[in-house]
UniProtKB/TrEMBL annotation:
Fungal lipase-type domain boundaries: 369-478
Name the record gives this protein: Lipase (Class 3)
GO terms under biological process: lipid metabolic process
InterPro entries the record matches: AB_hydrolase_fold, Fungal_lipase-type, Sec_MonoDiacylglyc_Lipase
Amino acid sequence: MTTLSPDDAASLAQLAGAAARDLSIGAALPPGWSVFETFPNAPPPLGPDTTGAQGFIASGALPSDPGTQVTVIALAYPLQSYAAWSSATVIGRPAGLLPLPAGVSDVNANAIAPAVAGYAALRDELWQAFARTAPRDVIVTGTQLGAAMAAIGAIDLRPGQIGPDGTTKGPAAKSRCVMLSAPAPGDQALAQLLAAQTQAAWTLSTAHLGVSIDTFPGAPTDGAVVAGTPMAIPARTLAAPGLISDADTWVQRDSDAYVAALGGDPVDLGTVAAQMATQAAFDVLRAATLADLIGLPYLLSGYPGLRIAAPMVPYALSAPIANGPTIWGVSARAPGTAALLFRDAVGWQEFDTLTCDYNPVATPFSGPEWTTAKIHSGAATLFGTLRAAIAAEAGAALKADAATVLDFAGHGLGGAVAALAAIDTIQTLNPSQTPRVWMFGAPVFGTYDFLTLAAKLVGPTTISLSRLTDFLPRIPFAFGNDGLGQPVSLLGRPRITDPDGHGLSGYASLLSPRRAPEVM
């Protein structure tokens, strides 16, 4: 296989996606594929040497050659596992490019830190499982961080290589590597090594009219380069209404989106479904409207210069809120109210350097009462870069109408920024009415001392929405799990495939009176 057909790529995308799911009860694979072994055998507690990376070895036939069995090694470092590991490894969390794990290659090549850490944690068990198979043609695949691990694995599993036990031999023929939604996995030396040590390697991404739709890989930074042969796939729309639906990066980066774009039929590997339900009393219509409006900074950041034609009544777009050329939020106004709306991290670099920076740091607020309060470092950093722009927009809205009610709303890390912005507005602009805060899938971002003070200022007007399957609100911060405001749990499955449960379109779909959830 020196070329990669769309049908074969769709099959491998399904396997790569399965590796990123819950493997504690085994891997659920599409028809025709059999799991040989999953690893690690028993997920250990997260720590410096136990990252949460995982994978499996499976056998089956690709559509292009149904009579030939191949061995697929699917590697994954689920983003929720990486975020949880980052929270548990605040001190000494590796970053940037690191040398390949010991024993992989004598060549001086470097890969992104989480891929090195993840593969190093799996390498012994992977080779032990490999020794127990009768591998035929080997293909190593993965999605997102697992794709970068797959590049390392394809280099490691080569003819003449000896495994970490000192006896297991590598495959008879060179492996192949298929990477989906992959950040640049390493430096130029790694890219050259991957080309030399594999039969072929591909990096798949989705695009529409030349514009990247899956924006998670982002532009390479810090000396990293794209590896493998690029393969751009025409993206398909999600067939769902709303500003965010076709620009939801959490949905577009998922393997099912790739399978659909490749012309395949995504296999439902199991999702609990129920009607949307919550015991909390809150303004559902306003929450639904704000969830839709948070789609604006996603669209504007992913597609600069875009003219918004979607209906926003009664709101009118006021201005973007940006850090240099990077748009993180927008302000929008309606009679009697103004909304400041913030997106979550989009690309890998944003997710790694901001969302996963769980180091507790001092708040940006002055006064002795804040001395012992600590907040999430990534949220503090992002708020710091946007603080002046936020103050300008909030001040302009209050100047136009002193009775204006301000809504600060954000998704993911943007929810933490929204809360910090509301507190800052109270302390610096003294609005006549307490701002309302709406957080959709926000992380835990403050210590007890911070939450105690914040609750006095915005606690009664803060709504923190989460979903049962959303990983981000459930990751501890500084050994604490308490959040800010009134918690609202949304139970249900939206029509949009969203295995991570974090996509904004899922929140918007469950909340919107126009879109009923799919019910089993």
